[in-house]
Amino acid sequence: MPKIKKVAIAGASGALGPHVFKALADAGFEVTVLTRSKKPGAYDLAIEVLEVDFTSMDSLTSALKDIDAVVSTVGGTAVDGQTVLIDAAVAAGVKRFIPSDFGSVSTNPKLDKLPLYSSMANIREHLQKKAAVGELSWTVLACGAFLEFVLNMPTVIDFKNHTATILDDGDNRVTSTSMPLVGTAIAAILKNFEATKNQILHISEVIWTQNQLLGFAKELQPGIKWETNKTQTSVLLKESLEQIGAGDLSMPVILKLLKATALAGDTYGGAYDVTDNELLGIKELTADGLKTLVASHLA
Ligand SMILES: NC(=O)c1ccc[n+]([C@@H]2O[C@H](COP(=O)([O-])OP(=O)(O)OC[C@H]3O[C@@H](n4cnc5c(N)ncnc54)[C@H](OP(=O)(O)O)[C@@H]3O)[C@@H](O)[C@H]2O)c1
């Protein structure tokens, strides 16, 4: 059984990347950072940071020499470009590739043809082809909506301004995991090489609903007047696809597409009732724990 020792991470300077970098380093892997441009002072001097051209096979193959596994946490717009990184990983003899996916419903085949989701699906297909001929193994991690994004951004419930747009009946269940735990799971994947080979794994720290989060906020701050309105996820999905079709790829439109799908409950499987939490060392958050987190986000 191959033992993973040296791990390269691409996209380590983003939102998720630093948490994954820390978890890999804490788990004892020798981590190399692949970046488009070095950020002075970003890493301990002992860390190998390589400036690479993510469009060049030569640049990437040379950077991946002696690397056992590649973890990609590149941002959404760079997902398609990972084909070059995967091909270079094969050329360099890398044993495991974890692509930048880390979605909520991105692994649901019903969404494979939709903008954004099609990029993730193409990368999974590319990896499956390489694995089928024994060139590489892969693992995709589905983790739900990042818990930090759910609580810090006004997208689901705006805790600071006391407003919310309730989707459907507000009871759609959604999985979330915090970013440090996504890092924990990635390190565990690399420690459990055979058990995690060529599969999509699911982790879920907590399952919430909009009504539950709003209920916590109202209970914790009685007397506050909330402004709420309602819409349907199907309406949001139609609107977002029309806007994207008309060439609008702005962040509000992308967020609308993500909300319409990730918060659509059973329609796209946004809540994971069956998980790989135990294998990947994920401790679940209780409802009380979630309420405490909501309390820390109230104005
Ligand atoms: N489940 C959720 O709620 C959720 C939320 C957000 C994101 N995600 C997913 O998590 C993953 C990481 O997202 P993120 O928000 O952390 O990403 P991000 O902050 O937008 O970007 C991460 C890093 O990607 C690198 N990068 C950017 N453009 C690149 C390019 N063209 N080629 C190669 N590298 C490039 C940059 O690193 P360098 O400058 O160092 O090269 C950047 O710091 C994505 O798969 C995203 O879809 C999931």
Automatic annotation (TrEMBL):
What is the native source organism of this protein?
Talaromyces rugulosus (Penicillium rugulosum)
One GO molecular function term of this record is: oxidoreductase activity
Domain NmrA-like residue range list? 5-216
- Report whether Oxidoreductase shows up as a keyword of the record: yes
Gene3D superfamilies annotated for this entry? NAD(P)-binding Rossmann-like Domain (3.40.50.720), UDP-galactose 4-epimerase, domain 1 (3.90.25.10)
Quick check: keyword Oxidoreductase in the entry? yes
**What is the designated name of this protein?**
NmrA-like domain-containing protein
Q: Which domain of life is it from?
A: Eukaryota
- Record keywords: NADP, Oxidoreductase
Q: Which Pfam family, any one, appears in the UniProt record?
A: NmrA
